[in-house]
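Collaboration report, partner site 2.

Our partner group contributed sequences for two proteins of shared interest, and the home lab folded both. The records are reproduced in the order in which they were received, starting with the first partner submission.
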Amino acid sequence: MRIPVTTLNDGYDLPLLGLGTYKLQGEDVERTVRTAIELGYRHIDTASFYDNEVQVGKAINDAIKAGDVTREELFITTKLWNDDQERALQAYNESLERLDLEFLDLYLVHWPWPQNGTYVKAFEQLAELQGMGRLQSVGVANFYPEVLDDIINATGITPVLNQVELHAGFTHPELRAYHEEHDILTEAWAPIARGKNFDDPAIRAVADAHEATPAQVCLAYLMKLGCSVVPKTKNPQRLVENLGAVNVKLTDEDVATLDAVQGERMSGDPLTFPG
């Protein structure tokens, strides 16, 4: 199955649907990533904080050696953790070593951590890596307009995307408007709200109308809004199910129905996290 791509503000293409690997550990990591690649996933998202870069990298390299995919066909993302914001160059090299890759497609500052005041310095170091030709694209996660303004003004570089918690009922319309104005892609983590809204009548109604599952509708909805999505699962059937979201064609009426879903943030607030 072919996953649609979007072109980032630096000219590189990103698959709109990828695989998130948060909380995947041990043998589950290698098995899940290999299965995902075999199914057609090309965008793999990890982070140093996830403590699974070694296993993600092994699965990627095994898939390449087996001829399932080429490195050029893949889009690999990892992230700079908070404690490493003042040593981003070293942290990047450590992630590359753990992943056993020669380069990354995308490196994100994982959280702004405004209380520490080092997010601008961190992004400056990512921009330096990109300028050296050692990193393809630079982005952020969990940023909001004020801190986005800070890094753009300091570096003259606009991140290609901002990965944030986003799902039906919690869609950040103001942040997405900011992103659109600045040509920043909105990428959703927790895009299916951990399944907590699957019984919502609006989601159920749209799913029934399209003979789709609630997860597929939730993912299709966010992609219809112009977002990329990185749902996580270790269940092979769910990998197939999530991939099927690219075939769900929602109408404007469906979108309006899903816009009315009520929800709230499920994880840390970037304004205060990690405290």
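Second partner submission, folded after the first:
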Amino acid sequence: MGALFGALSSLSVGMSEMFGRRGARATGVLAVSVVSQGVAALAAFGMLLWLPSQPTWPDLGRGAVSGVGFGVGMVAYLGGLMRSSATVIAPMVATVTVVIPFGAAVAGGAEMTLLAALGVGVALVGLLFITTGGSVGSGMRAGLLWGAISGLGYGVGLAALIGTSSDSGSWPAVAQRVVACLLTVVAAMVVRSPVMPRGAVRWVALWSGVFGGIASVLYLLGIQADVLPAAVTGAMFPAVSVAIGRFVFGDRVRPVQVLGLGLVLTGVAGVVAG
């Protein structure tokens, strides 16, 4: 069940990023992120109606640390999409995001098999295929930089939730999204960017938040059920973003990048099977 919850979380994150990307193009990254993170917190809070909970301060603390990572991850990801394409950014985010929670799970005592270790290696080889799949122009460099920052943020955010108690319900996700929202508000004020989107963009940001809140809760359920598979499948959301970038936004995908993405997904599958 851990792998399934993680995969569903990745699908939800991908959908959240799709709506976020649409909104960011119209009104800016930070304004969309503020609304998205705030609505995600409300969505996670609403799920307390179905998830009995007795949160502890350590659970809330893990959620808060995760919120710092997710705030950085989302802003960097959407910012990168404004400067490059999902086919460049997503694989970098995917690899970094997988490695950090995977390492945290193993360090925490989760058993790592030879197949799982090989899977991580195959994913890294896939990244090399993707990042060397064409001439490295300014868009490629910007995509790799923003992708690395986003992956680091998301990876830390996911790893911080490992170890939350099964009695915590969705409270860690609520703390995660509240902190991410507050950090994004501060960032918007510092750079004097609009804090709230205007017009119809608000609805786009709202849907981004709904899917984001669902994703956080699904990931929590996954790592509490089976930490290692969930930690990996929960980091597969960039694959969803690549597909959306290709079919919704018309991002260019080179054949060697398709091969590289296939290797990344194969590597992740090896981790899950192991």
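Feedback sent to the partner group on the second submission included the following. The chain has eleven helices and no strands. The longest helix spans residues 2-27.
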